[in-house]
Amino acid sequence: MVGNEWFNEFLKAFSVESCPKEETKFFVGIPHETILKWLLSWVEAKDKPLFGDVTHGLQEGGIDILIQVCTGTKPKFGIQVKNDNDLKEKDFTQKIKAQITDTKKHKLQGLIIVLAADMNDKSVEGRVNGIT
């Protein structure tokens, strides 16, 4: 896929820097649904031909937001959001692996996992380091 114009544009659109560790305390107590709404608004405000649908629910198939490119072959990308509470669950690693496997049914060209959690918490930091 590298070299396709839409793919390069997609990578540029989602190329963001992590915030400083101290600022991640912001995510404590922020509901999953709120992060999804913020992220969807951000995606649709991009100057790239992208649109998204929130798919979060029992039948989501491992993704929270489905992103499509509006031109050409209409490739699909998935976004899975993990908030602070998700990352603090004991079975987080097993759940995320299962969700990644579930995404196969969508025939995605890529999957982005958004980790919106307090990196000052040692257990959260350890889990984030484990999956990255």
How many domains make up the 3D coordinates? 1
Ends apart, CA distance between termini: 22 Å
Query: Could you give the count of β-strands?
Result: 4
Provide the gyration radius in Å: 15 Å
The low-pLDDT segments are none
Descriptive keywords:
132 residues; alpha+beta; four-stranded mixed β-sheet; 5 helices; globular
What is this structure's SSE topology?
Layout: H1 5-13, H2 32-45, E1 50-54, E2 65-69, E3 76-83, H3 84-88, H4 92-102, E4 110-116, H5 122-131
Parallel strand pairs: 3-4
Antiparallel strand pairs: 1-2, 2-3
Overview of the structural elements:
- It is a single chain.
- This protein is α+β, with helices and mostly antiparallel strands.
- The protein has one domain.
- 37% of the residues lie in helices and 19% in strands.
- The protein has five helices and four strands.
- The chain has helices at 5-13, 32-45, 84-88, 92-102, 122-131, and strands spanning 50-54, 65-69, 76-83, 110-116.
- The protein has a four-stranded mixed beta sheet with strand order 1-2-3-4.
- The longest helix has 14 residues, at 32-45.
- It is globular.
- The model has no long low-confidence stretch (mean pLDDT 80).
